[in-house]
Automatic annotation (TrEMBL):
<dbReference type="GO" id="GO:0005737">
    <property type="term" value="C:cytoplasm"/>
</dbReference>
<dbReference type="GO" id="GO:0004030">
    <property type="term" value="F:aldehyde dehydrogenase [NAD(P)+] activity"/>
</dbReference>
<dbReference type="InterPro" id="IPR016163">
    <property type="entry name" value="Ald_DH_C"/>
</dbReference>
<dbReference type="GO" id="GO:0046394">
    <property type="term" value="P:carboxylic acid biosynthetic process"/>
</dbReference>
<dbReference type="GO" id="GO:0036243">
    <property type="term" value="F:succinate-semialdehyde dehydrogenase (NADP+) activity"/>
</dbReference>
<dbReference type="GO" id="GO:0004777">
    <property type="term" value="F:succinate-semialdehyde dehydrogenase (NAD+) activity"/>
</dbReference>
<comment type="pathway">
    <text>Amino-acid degradation; 4-aminobutanoate degradation.</text>
</comment>
<dbReference type="InterPro" id="IPR029510">
    <property type="entry name" value="Ald_DH_CS_GLU"/>
</dbReference>
<feature type="active site">
    <location>
        <position position="261"/>
    </location>
</feature>
<feature type="domain" description="Aldehyde dehydrogenase">
    <location>
        <begin position="23"/>
        <end position="485"/>
    </location>
</feature>
<dbReference type="Pfam" id="PF00171">
    <property type="entry name" value="Aldedh"/>
</dbReference>
<dbReference type="InterPro" id="IPR010102">
    <property type="entry name" value="Succ_semiAld_DH"/>
</dbReference>
<dbReference type="InterPro" id="IPR016161">
    <property type="entry name" value="Ald_DH/histidinol_DH"/>
</dbReference>
<dbReference type="InterPro" id="IPR050740">
    <property type="entry name" value="Aldehyde_DH_Superfamily"/>
</dbReference>
<dbReference type="InterPro" id="IPR015590">
    <property type="entry name" value="Aldehyde_DH_dom"/>
</dbReference>
<dbReference type="GO" id="GO:0009450">
    <property type="term" value="P:gamma-aminobutyric acid catabolic process"/>
</dbReference>
<comment type="similarity">
    <text>Belongs to the aldehyde dehydrogenase family.</text>
</comment>
Amino acid sequence: MALKTLLKDPSLVADQNYINGEWVPSVSGKRFDVFDPATGSLLGSCPESTAADAEKAIHAADAAFPAWRSRSGRERGRILRRWYDLVMENKDDLAKLITAENGKAQADAVGEVNLSANFLEWFAEEAPRVYGDVIPHSSSAFRVSVLKEPVGVCGLITPWNFPAAMIARKLGPALAVGCTVVVKTAGETPFSAIALAILGARAGVPPGVFNIVNAHENTPEIGQALCYSERVRKVSFTGSTRVGRLLMKQCSDSIKKVSLELGGNAPFIVFDEADLDVAVSCAVVAKFKVTGQTCVCANRIYVQRGVYDEFLKRLVEAVQGFRVGSGHEATTTHGPLIGANAVNKVAGLVDDAVQKGAQVVLGGKKLHALGPNFFEPTILTNVTDEMRIVSEEIFGPVAAIQPFDSEAEVIAAANRCEVGLAAYVFTQEAARATRVSELLQTGMVALNTGVISDVAAPFGGIKQSGLGREGSKYGVDDYLQLKTIVTGNMSVVHPARI
């Protein structure tokens, strides 16, 4: 397999499903190919799994659940901590896998490996700290205690844009509290997840606790198997709002817990009094990180008229310094999009905007010379709300910039959206920072920074951006259920006065 030649430790590469501690093919006997989006070269293949494969993994996780949940939080935490150590020891190889199958520039790939490891470390520390409660009863002869218990088997459906970090962010809390999991990898990027499974086994994760089912064309079939199964008690999904709606409907028959981290359309708001050096450097990160392929990317950039021209000038200068190419090259700052469909979507959004009056200040075209999956870093002005690029998630390297006059105007524009994941605000006025942050209808707000993700910060949105929170101390809550124990008829002894 071509991937093995890239790594110091070729044993981190496998090309099967991982079920009950064994590497097995699909019962279908079919496979799908995985390609490098930068070069188009074949990296390898994985099983095209079916519902029958998913059921095998679900049964394995169900069988492993009683023993895993019975371990102490401290024991589970030690295993997660060893897993963290192994990820860090193999950081270079894991980053190469991510670059190969996802296309990320090296710096972004290394950053994702660090984030993945940090989730394992964080939840290793949370594992022994899942506390219950004791509640005073209205009667002195009764006692009430509340236990927090693992929900059971969890189906985790992960995206291609962060093929390692999104798995770690989900399985970290699940395993920490005593759940077992079945992971459905993204068909574009299965090998990063497989490498994590190999390191997890080396860390001591028992067979059946962590299972992987791969599929590409059969992804909907695997999703349905997880949603409809009575043995699966929770489904966690990161992806589009459209698919999230379908999964939520499918889970309704079995009344299971659902966590959804869905689409975003983040407003990026720059006020006149903002520090422009900070605002521009953060726009570069928030808009163009991972070539614009993150759910918290700045999608609508609003700049107050007093600084609009200067902000635009500085942003153009910064973007002109990008080096677009294969992530395998050390000088590359921005890699390809994940595939031709992604490129065509971005091109379609730009074309629609231009037809409706937008001006292309920079870029605007496919980079055919580099390959079919590259698109120029692009800046558009004269953008209006009638353009699709304002209402649809871009998921590509296009900055659509609009001027605004008043605070009330920009808040109304920012909130005129069916999703509400993240927002970015740049101001040096403390009162405005507080006021605008509270009025924005999003689950997260970044003030004077372009980076919103951290293991200690709860991640998630409101409205049609999803349900639940991942990461942080709150990240364990969606993998727990409460059990109330009421003890009655306790005799109360009143000691004699001394």
